[in-house]
Write a structure and sequence with these properties.
Elements: E1 5-11, E2 16-19, E3 25-34, E4 40-48, E5 62-76, E6 79-93, H1 97-120
Parallel strand pairs: 4-6
Antiparallel strand pairs: 1-3, 1-5, 2-3, 3-4, 5-6
Amino acid sequence: MLNYVVLHGTLTRSARAQVLASEAVLLRLELRTRTGDGPADSVPVVWFDPPAWGPSLEADADLVVVGRVRRRFFSAGGATQSRTEVVADRVVRAGSRRRAARALVEAAVSLEAAAVAVEQG
């Protein structure tokens, strides 16, 4: 099975860092993406243990995100709720053209390998 996401978009607001009980750092991002002339989509992204520059990301930063989709369930106000989000494996500033291109090439290679695996059954 394959769960792979590649996004290119801009942050709708500055990154928000949170220290978890496990002492891991979780960075919350909200990425605005657009496909063609259609309306923009807002995609929640979480990034575990980002590098030191991660929390300094500000609104309108142009990013490439590679990761996976997950739906998590939690209790809030006595009710079970859920949230669908992208868990980032890699976040690159789109202005860093070589790094962004490398992230996209690696994503393409992974998708091609998955396609071959599906074809071979």
